[in-house]
């Protein structure tokens, strides 16, 4: 199992950054996310607990369920199904007010389950690709909210 965290400071209010990142249809503003839709709304908010999100990336298809939702500070999700299949323990986005804006930390734990090479393949190939896509999504959030690229941490 590999854990990956991508962080950015976005020069916008925490509530705006949280809302943008929770609404995954925005992710299609990158060339890496081809489709994103809300398949089932959450209990207390469209992207709240119980919401089901469907994403088609250039590397695969993902069905995610929101498991925790505390606006504007954090939300958790799990990938229930994916093509190609992957093991996923948890995804989490946290939002913290910092001087100059909002620090976003996006963490996920996953593994590509291939016998004998799964861990090596995840480290060598999948982890850098997922990090790049997460970073591109956060950069798109910053551009949408401020018109400028995000600050990397």
Give short descriptive properties of this protein:
8 strands, 45% strand, 25% helix, Alpha-D-Glucose-1,6-Bisphosphate, Chain A, domain 4, 153 residues
Tell me the strand order in the biggest sheet.
2-3-4-5-6-7-1-8
Q: Average pLDDT, to the nearest integer? A: 88
CATH class label: Alpha Beta
Computed Rg = 15 Å
Work out the helicity level. Answer: 10-25%
* CA-CA gap between termini: 23 Å
Please provide the count of β strands.
Answer: 8
Number of helices: 2
Query: Biggest sheet, in brief?
Result: 8 strands, antiparallel
Remind me, CATH topology? Answer: Alpha-D-Glucose-1,6-Bisphosphate, Chain A, domain 4
Q: Give the DSSP E fraction (strand runs of 2 or more residues).
A: over 45%
| Low-pLDDT segments | none
Series of H and E elements:
EHEEEEEEHE
Structural class: alpha+beta
CATH-level-4 superfamily name: START domain
Give the name of the CATH architecture.
2-Layer Sandwich
Q: What is the number of domains?
A: 1
Shape: globular
Organism: Streptomyces lunalinharesii
Pfam family, one: Polyketide_cyc2
Protein name: SRPBCC family protein
Structure write-up:
Helix content is 25%, strand content 45%. With 153 residues, the protein is α+β, with helices and mostly antiparallel strands. The protein has one domain (2-152): START domain (Alpha-D-Glucose-1,6-Bisphosphate, Chain A, domain 4), CATH 3.30.530.20. Strands 2-3-4-5-6-7-1-8 form an eight-stranded antiparallel β-sheet, covered by helices on one side. A hairpin with a 3-residue loop joins strand 5 (74-83) and strand 6 (87-98). Helix 1 (14-22) packs across helix 2 (118-146). The two termini are 23 Å apart.
């Amino acid at each position: 199992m590999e854990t990956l965290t991508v962080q950015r400071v976005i020069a916008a209010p925490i509530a705006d950054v949280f809302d943008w990142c929770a609404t995954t249809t925005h992710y299609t503003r990158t060339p890496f996310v081809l489709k994103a839709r809300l398949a089932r709304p959450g209990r207390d908010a469209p992207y709240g607990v119980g919401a089901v999100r469907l994403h088609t990336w250039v590397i695969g298809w993902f069905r995610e369920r929101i498991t925790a939702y505390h606006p504007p500070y954090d939300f958790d999700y799990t990938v229930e199904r994916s093509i190609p299949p992957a093991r996923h323990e948890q995804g989490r986005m946290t939002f913290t007010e910092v001087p100059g804006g909002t620090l976003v930390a996006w963490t996920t734990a996953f593994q590509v389950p291939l016998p004998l090479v799964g861990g090596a393949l995840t480290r060598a190939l999948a982890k850098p690709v997922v990090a790049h896509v997460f970073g591109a999504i956060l950069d798109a959030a910053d551009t949408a909210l401020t018109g400028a690229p995000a600050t990397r941490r």
